[in-house]
Amino acid sequence: MNRLPLLIVQMGSPPPELAAQAGEQADWFAAALPGETLHVIRVHDDQPLPPAHTFRGAILSGSWQMVTDRLPWSERSARWLRELLPTGKPVLGVCYGHQLMAHALGGVVDDHPDGPELGTQSIECLPGIEDDPLLRGLPLRFHAHLTHTQSVLQAPPGAQTLARSAHDARQILRYGPRAWSVQFHPEFTPGLLRRCIARRAPALEAAGRNVQALYDGLRETPESASLLRRFAALA
C-alpha cells in the first residue's frame, strides 16, 4: 500500500524578490524533507483544505501576513484546525502556523511588546520534553532560526509550553498527543535567513539593529531541523 503524503499548508507567498531568489515555503519544506511525498495546499489562493483521511500529517507554514489581520483564508484554516485536531491526525505549526494554532484553540496572538525576534537564537527546552515523542532526546539548549513580529502572548487552555527563548516565552507548544507548534523555522537554512535579513537591512539599521551582528550570528541548526524529520517519522 502506498503511504499517504504529508500535507504542507502554505500560508501566503513570500515577497516577490525573495521568492525569485529562494522559492516559496513549500520549496523550503521539500528541501528539508528529501524523499518525502508532500501534498501542498496554497490556502491563500483559496485551494480547499483536504479531509483528514487523505494525508498522514499536516505542517502549517510561516507567512508574511499577520494572524491578527483575520484574513478570510486564515480564519478558514483556523476552523479546519478545530475540526482536524480531535481526529488525532499529527499536526505541526511553524511560525505563522504556530500562532494560528494557538489562535484557533483560544490563545492570544499579537505583536510582541519587545518587538521582533530575528536571527539564529538559543532555544531552551522546559520540563516535559523527556516524555514527548517529538522532542525527547533534544539537548536542553539548541539553536534555531527566527524571524517574526507577532507571538503567542497567551497559550490556549490546556496547552503545554515545552521551550522558550530569551525573547519569547512560548517557542514550542503542545496541544495534545500528536499536535505541536514551534515559533522558530526548522525549515530555514542560514542562507535563507541571511536573505530575509538582507531585504530588511535598511529598516533594521534605521531602527538601531546591528545587521552585521545578525549576519555574524548565523549558524547551522541541526537540532531544530531534525524536528521536521522526527515529525515525518511520527506521522
UniProtKB/TrEMBL annotation:
The record's PROSITE patterns line, in alphabetical order, gives: GATASE_TYPE_1
* Gene3D superfamilies assigned to the protein according to its UniProt record, in alphabetical order: 3.40.50.880
Name residues in a coiled coil: none
Q: Which InterPro entries match?
A: ChyE-like (IPR044992), Class_I_gatase-like (IPR029062), GATASE (IPR017926)
Identify the EC number(s): 6.3.5.2
The cross-references to CDD domains, in alphabetical order and at most eight, read: GATase1_1
Q: Record's GO cellular component, any one?
A: cytosol
Task: Give the keywords, sorted.
Answer: Glutamine amidotransferase, Ligase, Transferase
Identify the residues that the record assigns to the Glutamine amidotransferase domain, covering every copy. Answer: 51-192
User: What is the main EC category here?
Assistant: ligase
The GO molecular function terms of this record are:
GMP synthase (glutamine-hydrolyzing) activity; transferase activity
Superkingdom of origin organism: Bacteria
Q: Extract the NCBIfam families matched here.
A: PRK09065.1 (NF006562)
Q: This chain belongs to which protein, by name?
A: Glutamine amidotransferase
**Organism for this UniProt entry:** Bordetella trematum
